[in-house]
Write a structure and sequence with these properties.
Layout lengths: L2 E4 L11 E2 L12 H4 L5 H8 L4 H5 L3 E3 H9 L2 E3 L4 E9 L5 E8 L1 H8 L13 H10 L17 H14 L11 H12 L5 H5 L1
Parallel strand pairs: 1-3
Antiparallel strand pairs: 1-2, 4-5, 5-6
Helix pairs in contact: 2-7, 6-8
């Protein structure tokens, strides 16, 4: 979802000196300027028009120090299903001010423009996923590990984007997890899916 960088400076004065977890949640460059002269032309256009396009391409920079400050004061309100926290920021006069931050699943849906809901399915029947993968030209064993290298280039590119942008992995990014398989199945079949449930 985000390019995540580290920095120990206050929120008003972030440092760009070093990336934090740069191998995790990397945004995808799906712009036509990068893809129109490649074999990924059609699949990149498909991803740009999908309901997860914003989640794949969001270039928001988040600093490690901000994340640490946020979680140091975070509290979860079960009744509202909302996380509350506070962060310190410099105002226009250089004074420290505390800002309350709150977010929930609905907020994430709105920001990422996912267009899904809690009532959308979170798990797709396995036979549906595997049947689709066969139609996508999967060359491996259906009961074995699902690897992106076992597909043709356009589908490999699709899986690569989703694994790097939406998965929890920091390594072994050639393999796809069941929840990534569900996202890809719903995306290709144009079916609703509760993406937030499986990625957050």
């Amino acid at each position: 979802m985000m390019a995540i960088r580290s920095g120990g400076n206050p929120i008003g004065q972030p440092s760009d000196s070093q990336y934090w977890d740069k191998s995790h949640n990397i945004y995808c460059l799906l712009d036509a300027v990068y893809t129109d002269i490649t074999i990924f032309l059609v699949i990149a256009k498909f991803l740009r028009e999908s309901n997860i396009a914003k989640a794949l391409t969001d270039k928001t920079i988040v600093y490690e120090s901000h994340v640490r400050w946020f979680w140091s004061s975070a509290r979860y309100e079960e009744k509202e299903k909302t996380i509350y926290s506070a962060v310190t920021k410099k105002d226009e006069n250089g004074q420290d001010v505390d800002l309350e931050i709150k977010f929930n699943v609905g907020y994430l849906r709105r920001v990422l423009e996912l267009g899904n809901s809690d009532s959308d399915p979170t798990i797709i029947p396995e036979h549906l996923c595997k049947g689709l993968w066969c139609r996508m030209g999967f060359t491996g064993h259906l009961n074995g590990k699902m690897g992106k290298t076992m597909f043709c280039h356009p589908y490999k590119f699709t899986i690569h984007c989703i694994v790097y942008a939406l998965s929890h992995r920091k390594g072994a990014c050639d393999e796809t997890s069941n929840y990534i398989m569900n996202i890809i199945t719903c995306l290709v079949l144009n079916r609703p899916s509760n993406v937030l449930w499986v990625t957050f």
